[in-house]
Design brief:
The chain is mainly alpha-helical. The protein is built from 3 helices and no strands.
Length: 49
């Protein structure tokens, strides 16, 4: 999922490493923020998905 957030097409094609790293960073920040806000596990999974 991090690659798609970073700009790689799910239908194939090319992507760049920096975009994938940026996507992974966004997911990590989102997960940390939801944990700090004490969101229930189900809500975290829905928002992450």
């Amino acid at each position: 999922m991090a690659a798609v957030i970073g700009g790689t097409s799910i239908f194939g094609g090319r992507g760049v490493y920096t975009g994938t790293i940026l996507g992974a960073l966004i997911l990590a920040v989102l997960t940390t923020l939801l944990t700090i806000l004490q969101m229930p596990e189900g809500a975290r999974r829905i928002l992450s998905g």
